[in-house]
Design a protein that fits this description.
This protein has 253 residues and is an alpha/beta fold. It has a domain at 3-145: Ribonuclease Inhibitor (Leucine-rich repeat, LRR (right-handed beta-alpha superhelix), Alpha-Beta Horseshoe). The chain contains five helices and six strands; from the N terminus they run αβββαβαβαβα. It has helices spanning 3-11, 81-86, 103-106, 131-138, 169-252; strands at residues 21-23, 46-48, 68-70, 92-94, 117-119, 144-145. The protein has a six-stranded parallel β-sheet with strand order 1-2-3-4-5-6. α3 (103-106) links the parallel β4 and β5 (117-119). The N and C termini lie far apart (149 Å). Keywords: Leucine-rich repeat, Nucleus, Repeat. Residues 157-233 have a biased composition (Acidic residues). GO terms for molecular function: histone binding. Belongs to the ANP32 family. It comes from Chanos chanos (Milkfish).
Length: 253
């Protein structure tokens, strides 16, 4: 998709003056130049043209409110002096992965007085001796070079050159909390179920104990009844024997 068509699609029925952020990554530039971008984008604050085959920024329109410009992974080797004229309030500039070999190529950036962060990662200029020290001397307005300050402290997230769109940290925290709650809920249910099962098992054991005691009582009662029957039977036999002896003695007399 060429750059003009991509810009038309990114407008989404808006007028250029309504656009504050414009991402044109991976589209095709015509002859390595910016096309389709005009002065009508007067409110534009963020422009990204990563990997579009640019060799020059000469066709960049006047964008007074532009603060962040992404030009990484192109074939730019010079002509940066137009940036001070076209984007005077630029604070973040990413030129990583371009054909910049010498410090003289970035010297025109001195005129960008508001420039706070510059990225030259994967450019040949980074192989020069004392590269970082010399760049900070050349561009004293810089706070961060390739994501680190003069003391090699990493730039905070607020200064990182990332797309403005994206998931907020608060949304991520909310998602993590929701996932945690969802994971915790089944565990609670399992504990309740285990507790119910233990209570049921305890009730069954109590019932078994009660039934066992009742059986023992029945056996004892049965034993007592049997003993009484045996006693009555023996007593009857004794009485009969006594009567027979009395009859025998009477007959002899």
């Amino acid at each position: 998709m060429d750059m003009k068509k991509r810009i038309y699609l990114e407008l989404r029925n808006r007028t250029p003056s309504d656009v504050k952020e414009l991402v044109l990554d991976n589209c095709r530039s015509n002859e390595g130049k910016i096309e389709g971008l005009t002065d009508e984008f007067e409110e534009l604050e963020f422009l990204s043209t990563i990997n579009v085959g640019l060799t020059s920024v000469a066709n960049l329109p006047k964008l007074n409110k532009l603060k962040k410009l992404e030009l990484s992974d192109n074939r730019i080797s010079g002509g940066l002096e137009v940036l001070a004229e076209k984007c005077p309030n630029l604070t973040h500039l990413n030129l990583s992965g371009n054909k910049i070999k010498d410090l003289s190529t970035i010297e025109p950036l001195k005129k960008l007085e508001s420039l706070k962060s510059l990225d030259l990662f994967n450019c040949e200029v980074t192989n020069l001796n004392d590269y970082r020290e010399n760049v900070f001397k050349l561009l004293p307005q810089l706070t961060y070079l390739d994501g680190y300050d003069k003391e090699d402290k990493e730039a905070p997230d607020s200064d990182a050159e990332a797309y403005p769109e994206g998931l907020d940290d608060e949304d991520e925290d909310d998602d993590e909390e929701e996932e945690y709650d969802e994971d915790a809920a089944p565990g609670d249910d399992d504990e309740e179920e285990e507790g119910d099962e233990e209570e049921e098992e305890g009730e069954e054991e109590e019932e078994d104990d009660i039934s066992g005691e009742e059986e023992e009582e029945e056996e004892l009662n049965d034993g007592e009844v049997e003993d009484e029957d045996d006693y009555e039977e023996e007593r009857g036999q004794t009485i009969n024997c006594n009567k027979m002896n009395e009859n025998t003695i009477a007959a002899v007399q």
